[in-house]
From TrEMBL:
GO cellular component term, pick one: cytosol
SUPFAM superfamilies assigned to the protein according to its UniProt record, in alphabetical order: DhaL-like
GO molecular function: glycerone kinase activity
Keyword vocabulary terms for this entry: Kinase, Transferase
GO biological process per UniProt: glycerol catabolic process
Superkingdom to which the source organism belongs: Bacteria
Residues of the DhaL domain: 4-205
Organism encoding this protein: Caballeronia insecticola
Alphabetical list of Pfam families matching this protein: Dak2
Name of this protein: Dihydroxyacetone kinase L subunit
InterPro entries registered for this protein in UniProt: DhaK_L_YcgS (IPR012737), DhaL_dom (IPR004007), DhaL_dom_sf (IPR036117), Dihydroxyacetone_Kinase (IPR050861)
């Protein structure tokens, strides 16, 4: 894992967000202010524009570089939250850039999710991206502890993310803009849960493909 891998993952996440842009826009129009996908794509475009810099770095510095760009370009609630995810992961990333073992990355992902929780001051059940990130981090850690292979992890995490994303539909929003709607927030998937799930699925597919 290095800056090139980070950029490959960014490209995969970017492609998936672009493909689902209209759907994410509709979700945020239903329970937010409609800007979530615009915010994210602005950040993705900025990351793509700094491809050479990111690719030249080792894994953790590449994540930190991307995080700083995300903070200054994404905006909204999700910009600082994705910044926290990336810096949290970078701080806990395996020190050896060549170590792409499951346990190290499970720890890094969990640290990223913890950082999002501290920034956004929420856990599961408030109908946010955390309803996807936390179950994925938990399953990732459990798989790592059970000695699961990289292939098994990359196949399993997208399933966990999808189930968790779908479960936000019936939740009552108690954090962020959607919470202003009260009961009317029910019946819509959270846009941040959907974008996070899509990015997780795209990154897992791309890493699985890379290893093949
Ligand atoms: P804004 O709500 O400021 O317009 P965005 O549209 O970019 O920001 O992002 C909205 C998404 O941010 C929501 O769908 C939700 O998943 C996520 N979100 C909002 N508040 C929080 C929070 N406190 N913790 C975690 N995620 C949150
Ligand atoms: Mg919004």
């Amino acid at each position: 894992m290095n800056g090139k891998t980070v950029m490959t993952c960014i490209d995969a996440a970017h492609a998936s967000l672009k493909e689902h842009a209209d759907e994410i826009a509709s979700l945020d129009q239903a329970i937010g202010d409609g800007d979530h996908i615009i915010n994210l794509l602005r950040g993705m475009d900025a990351l793509v524009a700094m491809r050479a810099q990111i690719e030249a770095e080792a894994f953790a510095p590449a994540l930190k570089l991307a995080a700083t760009k995300v903070l200054s370009t994404v905006g909204g609630s999700s910009g600082p939250l994705f910044f926290s995810m990336l810096t949290g992961m970078a701080k806990a990333a395996p020190p050896d850039a060549d170590d792409d073992g499951v346990p190290g990355f499970a720890r890094a992902f969990a640290a990223g999710v913890d950082a999002v929780g501290q920034r956004g001051k929420t856990g599961t059940g408030s109908k946010t991206m955390m309803d996807v990130l936390i179950p994925v981090a938990q399953r990732f850690s459990a798989l790592a502890e059970a000695g699961a292979s990289r292939d098994d992890v990359l196949a399993e995490l997208p399933r966990v993310a999808e189930e968790a994303m779908l479960a936000t539909r019936d939740m009552l929003a108690t954090k962020g803009r959607a919470s202003f709607l009260g009961e009317r927030s029910r019946g819509h998937i959270d846009p941040g849960a959907r974008s996070s799930q899509l990015m997780i699925a795209a990154v897992c597919a791309c890493l699985a493909h890379d290893a093949a």
